[in-house]
Design brief:
By secondary structure, the chain is α/β, with parallel strands linked by helices. Helices cover about 40% and strands about 15% of the residues. A seven-stranded mixed sheet has the order 1-7-6-5-4-2-3, with helices on both faces.
Length: about 300
């Protein structure tokens, strides 16, 4: 759990619900407004869980097919969301592998983007670009996110950012939360990853978009009528951590030491590679490091050494 739960605070005692209509009571609307201020956007919408945040975001953006979604082949959307983009939004998934082995670039993405007004009725035009930051621990630079979003907007393509772990990208000093959230049309922020919320996520966007997203969310019966326990834990995890990125960095100073970790661990890892690129939020060990009990034991010893 997050640091907010280590000592008594608002979430410890205040579980009053009042008149609960499922939308505005239990502190949900107040928390959504506070999240809007935290991200620098018009509004946010409280979601039951992070996958729903992504799926509601896509369905709200996309109208009637044909339409396609362009995304990284490694995306959580592709591998961990049961094909929801196809079944729920009727979208063709166009997956591409990054040319640099790290993140998608605008130049490479443009090669696969089908832009069509329907004149050629054999095409399935790209209507949405899905980005994930971080993706497998790799943080797409803010400058690349900006290039992609500006190009997409000029071609009437929307951009959704799966920022389930965006807090960690902010903690790695890749950019501020305001900077990342200002660029895409919508952002999904998980409230449990690294922050200590109980469940749920926040869908970030403008008011008109989120008004429709609330409607779409309800079609999937995805609304609690007693949200007080969830709002309390999520609000404490986020808002009592006054600067989530900065305070996560203070809790996990290894994020700033990833290059030092990579340098110091490499000669001790018996030939296994340790990556500590600037584009990563953490230092990554090669897949061979934990293939045996001896390697696992060695890894745990190294972790204890770093913590000291």
């Amino acid at each position: 759990m997050g640091a907010a739960w280590q000592s008594p605070g608002p979430a410890t005692y205040d579980f009053r619900t009042g008149v609960n209509d499922g939308w505005n009571a239990s502190g949900a609307s107040g928390f959504e407004a506070e999240m809007g201020r935290l991200t620098g956007r018009d509004a946010t919408l409280f979601m039951v869980f992070s996958i729903m945040g992504n799926q509601v975001a896509l369905r709200t953006h996309l109208g009637t097919p044909p339409h396609s979604i362009l995304c990284d082949v490694r995306s959580h959307l592709v591998h961990m969301e049961t094909g929801g983009a196809g079944s729920w939004s009727g979208a063709l998934m166009v997956t591409i592998a990054s040319s640099n082995g790290l993140w998608l670039t605008l130049k490479y993405l443009q090669r696969y983007a089908v832009i069509s007004d329907g004149t050629d009725f054999c095409t399935c035009p790209i209507k949405l670009i899905h980005l994930e930051v971080p993706l497998g621990g790799i943080v797409m630079p803010l400058s690349e996110v900006k290039r992609i979003c500006h190009w997409a907007r000029s071609n009437d393509i929307v951009v959704h950012l799966d920022g389930a772990r965006l807090w960690e990208a902010v903690a790695s000093v890749a950019g501020t939360l305001h900077e990342y959230c200002a660029l895409p049309d919508s952002i999904n922020l998980c409230l449990t990853e690294g922050l200590g919320g109980e469940v749920d996520s926040a869908l970030v966007g403008n008011k008109a978009y989120l008004k429709r997203a609330k409607w779409v969310k309800k079609t999937n019966s995805a609304q609690y009528y007693s949200m007080v326990q969830y709002v309390s834990s999520d609000r404490s995890g986020v808002l009592l951590t006054k600067d989530p990125g900065k305070e996560m960095l203070e809790r996990y100073p290894q994020l700033m030491n990833r290059d030092n970790v990579a340098v110091s661990w490499s000669p001790k890892c018996k030939g296994d590679k340790v990556l500590g690129l600037e584009t990563m939020e953490v230092a990554w060990l090669s897949r061979y490091i934990v293939t045996s009990r001896q390697s696992l034991s060695h890894l745990l010893d190294l972790g204890a050494e770093i913590r000291r």
